[in-house]
Amino acid sequence: MRHDGPVVIALDGSPHSEQTLEWGLAEAEHRAAEAVLARAFQVPRDPSAWNWYLVVPEPALLAEVKEYLVERLEHATVRSPGIVISTRALDGPEVPALQALTTDAQLLVVGAQGQVGRTRVGRVGAHLAAHSRCPVAVVRGASQGGSVVVGVDGSPTSLAAAAAAAREAVWRGVPLVVLHARPPLLDPHVTVREVPPLATSDADDPTHQAAERTAATLREENPGLEVRLELLDDEPVHALLARSGPDDLVVVGSRGMGAFRGMLLGSVSNEVVRHASGTVLVVHDDEDR
């Protein structure tokens, strides 16, 4: 995971982009990193009887995108005068164009762009969270004042996520919540189960012992950081969603212990990205590269 590349902030011209920009600039300030304001565009085409034709002339569309980026750059320079800020107009489909920038970036910041309901993330955010070559922040709101919540399960990516979450908490001056959820054993005779998360502590459980060691390491490596360890008997997705709120940052590894090796985004990470009420940071490990 790189620490020397730029923070790429993906903008699309929607009202939500203002929140994405504010969150991304604050993150670049925390990291003392360059910020790159990026917007992808694709010239719309319609089929005619004989061929495809341009709906909007390409030079006109490019000029419109550049004008938008200049306006956002002026705002960003006033808001964050202490960092270097540049712009990139990307010609092509949004997902692959932005994904190409993540090879050299230390963070990609995208807006959730989803509607409240079945899912709270759009197609672009979901694809980039799974396929990018660097950590991805899927932003819902500009607030950075809540706690940082990280889920750990002992997998390499969850440990990388815990280290990244500790850095985020230190930068913000907020507590770090380290959450380990042990899936409960369900009664096969019970078909409906509506039980709230159950706090538990099992000294003989190896996963609890590992979570304790992870929390202790984070305290040792980050003096002064308040690290709260929460051990629950609950499904991991439900536990993370229930524990975090709109102002919190949830940090997850791209793949947990249960993910197949070929998967780029595990089931827990995928569900948290799609349904969390606040911003989610997805941390990829070196095997995702």
From TrEMBL:
Transmembrane segments: none annotated. Gene3D superfamilies: HUPs (3.40.50.620). InterPro entries: Rossmann-like_a/b/a_fold, Universal_stress_UspA, UspA. Residues 7-140, 148-284 form the UspA domain. It comes from the Bacteria. It holds the Pfam family Usp. Belongs to the universal stress protein A family. This is Nucleotide-binding universal stress UspA family protein. It comes from Isoptericola jiangsuensis.
